[in-house]
Amino acid sequence: MSRPSRLQRQVLSLYRELLRAGRGKPGAEARVRAEFRQHACLPRSDVLRIEYLYRRGRRQLQLLRSGHATALGAFVRPRGPTEEPRGAGAPGTPPEDGDGPRSPPDGMGSPETSRDGR
Predict the structure, then answer these.
(1) According to the per-residue pLDDT averaged within each range, which of 58-67, 76-85, 107-116 is highest?
(2) Is 12 a residue whose pLDDT tops 80?
(3) Which residues contact 35 (CB under 8 A, 6 or more apart)?
(4) What is the value of pTM for the model shown?
(5) N- to C-terminal Cα distance for the chain?
(6) Is the separation of the CB atoms in 97 and 103 below 8 Å?
(7) What CA–CA distance (Å, rounded) separates 19 from 27?
(8) Alpha carbon distances (Å) from 11 to 5, 16, 33
(9) Is-contact 61 11, C-beta < 8 A?
(10) Element (H, E) at 6
(11) In angstroms, rounded to a whole number, what is the distance separating the alpha carbons of residues 45 and 5?
(12) Pure H helices in the chain
């Protein structure tokens, strides 16, 4: 097996630091673990997203280390009994609940041009 890359070492170090900083703060360790597990399936080739998440994690670490953070939680939208979880449809299809981008009303879209270009 090859040696871990520099980015892999940085991510593992961030994970350990976040767990240490979250020790003693309610919900912090579970949230850190859940966040890392959620993004564990990212392909190694998606370096831009991994670097973005790394920078985001660094900012969260600074907040955890500051004396102002006493606990860590997450905002969760409650689901009703008939709602399906997001992503239940085919990949790439827009959500059907109306939260996605909307098309402009009739007459408000871009003007149509005739075939001769006028």
Answers:
(1) 58-67
(2) yes
(3) 57
(4) 0.59
(5) 64
(6) no
(7) 11
(8) 10, 9, 13
(9) no
(10) helix 6-22
(11) 12
(12) 6-22, 28-38, 47-65
